[in-house]
Write a structure and sequence with these properties.
This protein has 173 residues and is mainly α. The protein has helices spanning 2-22, 26-46, 50-75, 87-113, 127-137, 139-160.
Amino acid sequence: METAVFLLFALLALASALVVVAHRNPIYSLMSMVLTLFSVAVLFVLLGAPFIAALQVLIYAGAILVLFLFVVMLLNLQREESPGGQPAQRWAAVLGAGLFGGMLATLFWRTYRETPAAPLSERLVSLHALARALFEELLLPFEIVGLLLLVAVVAATILARRPHVPPETEAEP
């Protein structure tokens, strides 16, 4: 049963992630991203890390994507009408996809040619170990990510502002 749930949510995560990238409407892409993040949270539960799954839903699906939705609505983005881009962009995308596929194949090859990894211990997925790693060893990157999110919100707000047009002055006769 656990394998069936894993396969269902792994396929759901992959399919909804493809919709995020491929759909032309930004609102549909964001809604698909919510489904992707929820599917990943279910996969975290299957891995035995329910706290990380809850963080996934609360922080990413609950806060970050709502922020993205507000930015999309503030910018008033519409569906893209033009089909595709420049030929150089297509070749760069094909090259990037090939490079990603090669790196993924290398990762799988290295993973499965060696001895299997040890199972996760409770120490590796505990809240105490996560907090210690986050606030002792990774404090600077954690603070930088928070600052980066703040800058992104301020920049999106500034970009979304419409230019102020002063009222026309009446011409004197």
